[in-house]
Amino acid sequence: MDLGCCYHRLCGAKPARTGICVLLLAMMVILLSGRPLSAQDRITVSLYSEDSNVPYAFLDGDEPDGIYTRILKEAVARLPKYDLEIVNVPFRRGMDLLRNGTVMGFFPPYQRLERDWIERYSIPILRETVVAICSSDYANRRELNHFPADYAGARFANNAGYKLAGDAFFKMVDQGEIVLEEANTTASNLRFMMAGRVDCYVNERLAILDGMRELDVDRNITRLFDETAIIGQEYGFLAYGPDPENQWPWRNTFADALDTVLAKMRDSGVIDQLVSDYFA
């Protein structure tokens, strides 16, 4: 006979045996508090993510991968009450689903004032740094102290549709002061640089490193490139949208727990190690 059955037989009777009931109740609390969570006790958290933001969040075949993906997988693995499911979708679709309350969370958007419908962000997960890299030959012949003013006359590569270089840069492009060549991928733009077709390239630092890894660029070739400017920095987050139908009543409890774990991972160097492991 288990304790629950025993408790109901003894304590459901009239008159109840108070001393025994108190003892049994105390034993039940002690035993249950030490009981491992079963599959039925655990909550599956479905988070949506970008499907083509290399190296941050993307699909590798059928498997979610990327730096943010690995960080969040590790973080949720440290939360014994939760299991993680990741669904990859295009960025705009993910943001639409989040705004409509169809999904609980989406990563890794930046914070923007116009996204005031986002109810909550995680703590900053990873700092992304947008840089300009140029051929050493080009950089050594110029004083490149101010971006983009000091780059007049340069030939730049750019990922098609990306505006990371900023409004002032694209104004110089429109005025013919900078020549712009665009390709769809980081690897293609790096090929332009290695072939001497362009002088410089703007992208996020880790994305450039990932492109070099994809091309298997050796150290002798990387020495031919110089990072000449830091253009900006952004943090990526896990964003939580509206929940008008209260589908996730445990959302804030999960978000608080996740933030605590992410902070510990950041402070202990685990996040830095995951980034290093990705590029290893």
Question: Can you describe what's shown?
Answer:
The protein is of the alpha/beta class. The chain has three domains: 3-33; 43-125 and 238-279, 3-Layer(aba) Sandwich (D-Maltodextrin-Binding Protein, domain 2), CATH 3.40.190.10; 128-235, 3-Layer(aba) Sandwich (D-Maltodextrin-Binding Protein, domain 2). It has helices at 3-11, 18-33, 67-77, 91-99, 136-140, 167-174, 186-194, 205-215, 219-222, 251-267, 270-279, and strands at residues 43-50, 52-53, 57-60, 63-65, 82-89, 105-107, 120-121, 126-135, 155-159, 179-183, 200-204, 225-236, 239-240. β2 (52-53) and β3 form a beta hairpin. 29% of the residues are buried.
Count of distinct strands: 13
User: How many domains make up the 3D coordinates?
Assistant: 3
Structural class: alpha/beta
CATH superfamily of the largest domain: Periplasmic binding protein-like II
| Global Rg | 26 Å
Q: Which spans of ≥5 residues are poorly predicted at pLDDT below 50?
A: 1-8, 20-37
Strand order of the largest sheet: 5-1-6-13-7
Helix content: 25-40%
Helix and strand sequence:
HHEEEEHEHEEEHEHEHEHHEEHH
β-strand percent reads: 15-25%
CATH architecture label of the largest domain = 3-Layer(aba) Sandwich
Query: Count the helices. How many?
Result: 11
At the fold tier of CATH, the topology name of the largest domain is D-Maltodextrin-Binding Protein, domain 2
Keywords: Membrane, Transmembrane, Transmembrane helix
Organism: Thalassospira aquimaris
Protein name: ABC transporter substrate-binding protein
